[in-house]
């Protein structure tokens, strides 16, 4: 059973975004005319979208290949991904550099939040998924047993080897990997000299404003005012959506302290991790965590 952590952030390119489909990535809606192209598909198990200038069309196979390569590192849906092998075996020799990088960044956010952000919550997710499928609720002893396997300090990361301290521990990167993949795709586009680009692979990253000079429009929720974005990234977490898709490592329960939190930051990786973390940290610490973590703006909506 798939458990989605957040809703897709809708983006608007304005007039002139013709749709593209690539490599069986799924249907796309088109608008006529203009110099922009909109590609829609999937990435990391979620809906994905890119708005690109016509000059970027030759890069689409490379971009799709980069998304696929990174899914082979981070995806829990692929049984042979690097992350799946780590969770299955409890260790991983010669790990991909991208996995080492993401886990290092995750550890920094875990340290900053005293473990409110913890990528080792996967045992709690697995327990929740089993009970959702059965239409039952986890018992307190089951929750306690799963919580005993959750501890970011028990994840040992080295360029040569990644190890989980105890049998049964497991990692999910749903709170950071979508942002990382978004950034890597944006890096390919920027490396090709492109600006006026919007990439939304679970999180949203802008490389400069819309080609006509105005900001991109990003809607963080159906009941939220659209936000302008000229450069940098936006990520949203809605803890109560879909029955609760943020798990508190301290309690094992779904929920959070906010109805919605939207984070703007220079990179999608940072925005992704902080939007999850800020949903869980106490209100008195939110501003300090946001500043220390690198957020440039935060919009928090109380429950």
From TrEMBL:
List the cofactors.
Answer: Mg(2+)
Give the reaction(s) catalysed: L-threonyl-[protein] + FAD = FMN-L-threonyl-[protein] + AMP + H(+)
| Metal-binding listed as a keyword | yes
**PANTHER family per UniProt:** FAD:PROTEIN FMN TRANSFERASE (PTHR30040:SF2), THIAMINE BIOSYNTHESIS LIPOPROTEIN APBE (PTHR30040)
One Pfam family of this chain: ApbE
What SUPFAM superfamilies would the database entry show?
ApbE-like (SSF143631)
Task: Cite the entry's keywords alphabetically.
Answer: FAD, Flavoprotein, Magnesium, Metal-binding, Transferase
Gene3D superfamilies on file: ApbE-like domains
EC main class here is transferase
Entry EC no(s) = 2.7.1.180
State if Flavoprotein is listed as a keyword.
Answer: yes
What is the name of this protein? FAD:protein FMN transferase
What the entry lists under PROSITE patterns is as follows: TAT (PS51318)
Please name the taxonomic classification of the source.
Answer: Bacteria, Pseudomonadati, Pseudomonadota, Alphaproteobacteria, Rhodospirillales
Domain of life of the native organism: Bacteria
Annotated membrane-spanning segments are none
A GO MF label: transferase activity
């Amino acid at each position: 059973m798939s458990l989605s952590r957040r809703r897709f952030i809708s983006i608007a390119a304005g007039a002139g975004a013709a749709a593209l489909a690539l490599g069986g990535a799924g249907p796309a809606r088109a608008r006529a005319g203009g110099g922009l192209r909109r590609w829609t598909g999937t990435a990391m198990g979620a809906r994905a979208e890119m708005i690109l200038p016509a000059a970027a069309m030759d890069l689409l196979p490379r971009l799709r290949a980069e998304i696929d390569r990174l899914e082979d590192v981070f995806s829990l849906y692929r049984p042979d991904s690097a992350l799946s092998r780590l969770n299955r075996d409890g260790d991983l020799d010669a790990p991909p550099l991208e996995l080492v990088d993401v886990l290092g960044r995750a550890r920094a956010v875990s340290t900053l939040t005293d473990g409110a952000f913890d990528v080792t919550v996967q045992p709690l997710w697995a327990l929740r998924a089993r009970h959702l499928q059965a239409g039952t609720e986890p018992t307190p002893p089951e929750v306690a047993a799963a919580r005993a396997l959750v501890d970011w300090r028990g994840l040992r990361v080295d360029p040569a080897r990644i190890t989980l301290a105890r049998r049964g521990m497991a990692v999910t990167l749903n709170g950071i990997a979508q942002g990382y993949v978004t950034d890597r795709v944006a890096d390919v586009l920027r490396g090709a000299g492109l600006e006026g680009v919007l990439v939304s692979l679970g999180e949203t990253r802008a490389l400069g404003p819309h080609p006509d000079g105005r900001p991109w429009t990003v809607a963080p929720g159906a009941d939220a005012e659209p936000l302008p974005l000229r450069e940098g990234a936006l990520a949203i977490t809605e803890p109560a959506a879909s029955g609760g898709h943020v798990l508190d490592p301290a309690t094992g329960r779904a929920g959070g302290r906010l109805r919605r939190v939207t984070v703007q930051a220079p990179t999608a990786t940072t925005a992704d991790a902080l939007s999850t973390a800020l949903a869980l940290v106490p209100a008195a610490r939110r501003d300090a965590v946001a500043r220390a973590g690198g957020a440039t703006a935060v919009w928090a909506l109380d429950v």
